Amino acid sequence: MLVSGGNRGIGAVIAEQLRDAGHRVAATHRSGEVPQGVLGVQCDVTDTEAVDRAFGEVEEKLGPVEVVVANAGITRDTLLLRMSDEDYEAVLQANLAGAFRLARRAARPMMRKKFGRIIFISSVVGQLGSAGQVNYAASKAGMVGMARSIAREFGSRGITANVVAPGFIETDMTAELPAERVKAYTDQIPLGRLGTARDVAQAVAFLAGDGAGYITGALLPVDGGLGMGH
């Protein structure tokens, strides 16, 4: 299994969850360290050659990549009228095109094995929109169309493609927010709390497992009900 952006935040917890389930797990990173017991491989997902090298290293050390989790991403938030071409293109390149590169590199070996799981980590913002995040919302919404197209292309080869869309998740960033800001967020969430990285990781582990073998092209919200209906 390969998780991109597995050195911190949600990606690190996904890697830990899959590791603890007994899988051989690798995680890409640009800096920092991945969780103990996870193979770390340096990779910039905006670079096709770097993605290919990362897969080659994982295949050499752990064997074929049967599950890929496209989690790596960035934000460059600002209002539309202030957003530069560079701000827009950088986020699309890292988030959406990066996920495309991972899926494309993973697909051919999966086709040979007639088995594979491709999982994209999107966001509730991709469905609801968010002021100041035109670039980020576009990148995350695009994952849904990409996953569903992949699901149609490769379903006959036993390969599934699905999307997990986290909502407001407890992170280092949200821990620094004022209490009134956090309350404003939680007031919008039917379950009345922020999610945890573990909530997201457990959803990913389900889609990666045998129990999700008949699920493909699906959007699985992990958002406490915030985005329901979208």
Automatic annotation (TrEMBL):
Ketoreductase domain segment(s): 2-172
Superkingdom: Bacteria
Keywords: Oxidoreductase
Pfam families for the chain: adh_short_C2 (PF13561)
Oxidoreductase recorded as keyword: yes
Matches recorded under SMART domains: PKS_KR
GO biological process assignments: fatty acid elongation
UniProt-recorded Gene Ontology molecular function terms: oxidoreductase activity, acting on the CH-OH group of donors, NAD or NADP as acceptor
InterPro entries reported in the protein's UniProt record: KR_dom, NAD(P)-bd_dom_sf, Sc_DH/Rdtase_CS, SDR_fam
Family membership: Belongs to the short-chain dehydrogenases/reductases (SDR) family.
UniProt protein name: 3-oxoacyl-[acyl-carrier protein] reductase
Organism, scientific name: Naumannella halotolerans
